[in-house]
Design brief:
3-stranded mixed β-sheet, globular, 3 strands, 311 residues, 2% strand, Rhopdopsin 7-helix transmembrane proteins, mainly alpha
């Protein structure tokens, strides 16, 4: 495809990880394996937290929505990337790119929001146990989840509207395996991308507030847990908090690094690996992380595997 055609075509050209057919096949196979792992893991969590009567507390209610978010998040980018790689064609239509940006930014923000809600839930459960059922009553939980989805949609609308209001006058080549907003901004030849910068700055402030609230929640949690006299009590408290803390740290650190690092005109393998760390790995690893240290989840999983009958 000539440079003229790339500039004037309606859609965009996603540059994969390599032009080498062997590496392309390896990339598609790796993505397919990770996608299937994420699909199975998150569907299992959604199933057991819906059907098992022992997993009906607010913590597992939020975990179910996190799994649904993770499943949706990875489905926005990975299947398209696998298809493009197998067809040896990086073309993505303008409409597909708009939808990808909308759902990617919506779900990414919703993930930050649900992790913030989950940290407050753990804070209320461990630091305010006598008032926990009053604080996290079913109506409050439903309102919190509704706020997560609505705020995610607002974020997606803001990002998508601002991004696709710019004029793309350069070769429509995106050096990424999905329609990445920073890469799209580089296709602009004027200052009409300032709207996106404004949206990003606003959402960054909100994200920083969420981060601070998560940190404060865990400061209170840790100071409370270390004062629990029984070893069993401390172990039980940590088993519900450590997976969440790890997921929060991993998602926010990789996302922040991607946001702060300068975009390159010709990204190297390192840039692509970092993008995998915040787009593909969290949805794949979250079900494993949440199941490893949680005995209730392990028992529910065993019941699912050994019998289809829940009590």
């Amino acid at each position: 495809m000539t440079m003229t055609n790339v500039t004037t075509m309606n859609g965009f050209l996603l540059m994969g990880f390599s032009d080498n057919p062997k590496f392309q096949f390896l990339h598609a196979l790796l993505f397919l394996m990770m996608y299937m792992l994420a699909l199975i893991g998150n569907l299992i969590i959604i199933t057991i937290t819906t059907l098992d009567q022992h997993l009906q507390s607010p913590m597992y209610y939020f975990l179910k929505h996190l799994s649904f978010l993770d499943l949706s998040f990875i489905s926005v980018t990975v299947p398209q990337s696998i298809e493009n790689t197998m067809m040896n064609n990086g073309y993505i239509s303008y409409g597909q790119c708009i939808l990808q940006v909308f759902f990617f930014t919506s779900l990414a923000w919703a993930e930050v929001a649900i992790l913030t809600v989950m940290s407050y839930d753990r804070y209320a459960a461990i630091c305010l146990p006598l008032r926990y059922e009053i604080i996290m009553d079913p109506k409050t939980c439903k309102c919190a989840v509704a706020a997560v989805w609505v705020s995610g949609s607002i974020s997606g609308i803001l990002y998508t509207t601002a991004t696709f209001s710019i004029t793309f006058c350069r070769a429509k080549i995106i050096h990424q395996f999905f329609c990445d907003v920073p890469q799209l901004l580089k296709l602009s030849c004027s200052n009409d991308y300032l709207g996106v910068i404004g949206v990003a700055a606003f959402m960054s402030v909100i994200a920083f507030i969420c981060f601070i609230s998560i940190v404060l929640s865990y400061i209170h949690i840790i100071s409370t847990v270390v004062r629990i006299p029984s070893v069993e009590g401390r172990s039980k408290a940590f088993s519900t908090c450590l997976p969440h803390l790890f997921v929060v740290s991993f998602f926010l650190s990789t996302g922040t690094f991607e946001f702060l690092k300068p975009t390159s005109d010709s990204p190297n393998a390192f840039d692509f690996i970092i993008s995998i760390f915040y787009t593909v790995l969290p949805p794949t690893l979250n079900p494993i992380i949440y199941s490893l240290r949680n005995e209730t989840m392990k028992r529910a999983l065993q019941k699912l595997l050994l019998s289809s009958k829940f009590h």
